[in-house]
Amino acid sequence: MDIEKVNSMDFGEFVDVFGNVIERCPLIAAAVWSKRPFSDLGDLEKHFFAFIDGLPLSGQEGVLRCHPELAGRELQWGRLTAESQREQRAAGLQNLGAAERLRLTELTAQYRARFGFPFVLAVRLSDPAAAPRELSRRLRCPPAQELRTALGEVKKICHLRLADLLGEQP
Ligand code: 2AL
């Protein structure tokens, strides 16, 4: 799909196609449609990122809370969005051993208890061993810093999903 095709989309089609580039946040695509025409992928993603950056703290936390846990029950039960399912499977998170899964479950629970939102990591950019390592490191970060880090991961996921849709190299 090229950028002319994106610019020619009506509102409904645009939200159908881009509604999950920010996980389970179609409202963001609905807002970004008003910003067309877009010059290229970078321009398009800039508007998604600007929307997130412009949200109040409660909205930014809400965006994070729309993400599923890594290697959680939804993955085992096949209840994730198609994009998440693909990403978590490709990262090998469905095939963790029992001990590794338990370790990840414990760490993600600690993370959620500390920060009030799920741990978010762009898993396509890391290997399976990176998730527990990153979790342990980020668990020790101050909350304001961690919010920024987590939103940075949301933007990386968004970039990869947009690149997939536009058929570009990320
Ligand atoms: C995810 C997900 O579903 N895909 C990805 O890259 N990261 N979830 C998460 N909590 O980090």
UniProtKB/TrEMBL annotation:
Single GO MF descriptor: 2-oxo-4-hydroxy-4-carboxy-5-ureidoimidazoline decarboxylase activity
GO BP annotation list: allantoin metabolic process; purine nucleobase metabolic process; urate catabolic process
Keyword Lyase appears in the UniProt entry: yes
Origin superkingdom: Eukaryota
Presence of the UniProt keyword Lyase in the record: yes
One annotated Gene Ontology cellular component of this protein: peroxisome
Span of domain Oxo-4-hydroxy-4-carboxy-5-ureidoimidazoline decarboxylase: 7-163
Pfam families listed in its UniProt record: OHCU_decarbox
Alphabetical UniProt keywords: Decarboxylase, Lyase, Peroxisome, Purine metabolism
Enzymatic reactions: 5-hydroxy-2-oxo-4-ureido-2,5-dihydro-1H-imidazole-5-carboxylate + H(+) = (S)-allantoin + CO2
Locations listed in the record: Peroxisome
PANTHER family according to UniProt: 2-OXO-4-HYDROXY-4-CARBOXY-5-UREIDOIMIDAZOLINE DECARBOXYLASE-RELATED (PTHR43466)
Family in the record: Belongs to the OHCU decarboxylase family.
The protein's name: 2-oxo-4-hydroxy-4-carboxy-5-ureidoimidazoline decarboxylase
Species whose genome carries this gene: Moschus moschiferus (Siberian musk deer)
